[in-house]
Design a protein that fits this description.
eight-stranded mixed β-sheet; Rossmann fold; N-(1-d-carboxylethyl)-l-norvaline Dehydrogenase, domain 2; binds nicotinamide-adenine-dinucleotide; 14% strand
């Protein structure tokens, strides 16, 4: 089956990025969210991002209009009925996702593949909430979606090879490189990245060096484009803590214990860029 229309559930940070990537690649995107305001914000965000491409000269005004015309929005889940593949990118909460998936499983055609962009919930467990565990898969995009080139394709225990191939093809169509990953907490990238950031917080807590020096060390010594503490501010300290807690509880290995300073900063409301203060201070 040729995949031409993608249903996207959730119009937040990831949902609008996925919609933009699909529309730029010539696919239609039907974005569904419970919040009308989130849908409006999503269209504004995509439009603003395309405007930057127009200013840079990589897109014409006419192309921008064509891309925008491929994105439709709705607050009704019924709008997903005619789509060829559905990507769930709603709030990271297992109970919410299970409810969404049970509902969409009943609406979508039996042959439709359902993918989830979850960062931390077991693909096998989410698949079991649907009547199509063979046509259920993890499709983990990276933020910002239009820029980041990777998609982790995560197989649940019952995901079929045909499903993995279909979503890997879609990722390539979006100009991304897919990597196949077994279902396991943190998948590959967060399993490696988040403990590295956590270790940087330990280094800061132990007074090994200042935040600026730790970040300069990893930028200049390892060629990372951004230091781990600045990256943590970008991702959000609360998100970083949540990932470490998932890794710690899944593997029960002390190497994943969250740094106490990270927890304390989250308790203090210092969540990084989004609150104006984290390891660095930001102007609002
Ligand atoms: P977000 O909070 O920006 O957006 C979530 C959206 O889901 C909101 O607009 C909300 O209104 C909507 N929503 C909530 N309940 C819904 C429902 N029942 N039906 C339809 N829409 C509903 O979240 P986000 O950062 O875009 O994350 C979305 C998913 O992507 C999560 O699973 C997250 O773990 C994953 N993810 C996030 C990032 C990131 O950097 N933000 C990276 C990779 C994966």
């Amino acid at each position: 089956m040729s995949i031409q229309t993608i249903g996207i559930i959730g119009a937040g940070t990831m949902g609008n990025g996925i919609a933009q990537a699909c529309a730029v690649a010539g696919l239609n995107a039907v974005v569904q969210d419970v919040s009308e305001a989130a849908l409006e914000r999503a269209l504004k965000t995509v439009s603003g991002s395309l405007d930057r491409s127009v200013r840079k000269g990589t897109l014409t005004e006419a192309d921008k209009d064509t891309v925008m015309s491929r994105i439709t929005t709705s607050t009704s889940a019924d709008s997903l009925a005619g789509t060829d593949l559905i990507i769930e990118a709603a709030t990271e909460n297992e109970a919410i996702k299970i409810k969404i998936l049970q509902n969409v499983d009943a609406i979508a055609s039996p042959s439709t593949i359902i993918a989830t962009n979850t960062s931390s919930i077991s693909i096998t467990r989410l698949a079991a909430a649907t009547g199509r565990p063979d046509r259920f898969v993890g499709m983990h995009f990276f933020n910002p979606v239009p820029v980041m080139a990777l998609v982790e394709i995560i197989r649940g225990l019952r995901t079929s090879e045909a499903t993995v191939e279909a979503v890997a093809d879609l990722a390539r169509k979006l100009g991304k490189t897919p990597i196949g990953v077994k279902n396991s907490a943190g998948f590959v990238v967060n399993r490696i990245l988040c403990p590295m950031i956590n270790e940087a917080v330990f280094a800061l807590q132990e007074g090994l060096a200042s935040a600026e020096e730790i970040d300069a060390g990893m930028r200049l010594g390892c060629n990372h484009p951004i230091g781990p503490l600045a990256l943590c501010d970008l991702v959000g300290l609360d998100v970083q803590l949540a990932v470490m807690e998932v890794l710690y509880s899944n593997f029960n290995d002390s190497k994943y214990r969250p740094a106490p300073l990270l927890r304390e900063m989250v308790d203090a409301g210092m969540l990084g860029r989004k609150t104006g203060r984290g390891f660095y201070t930001y102007d609002k």
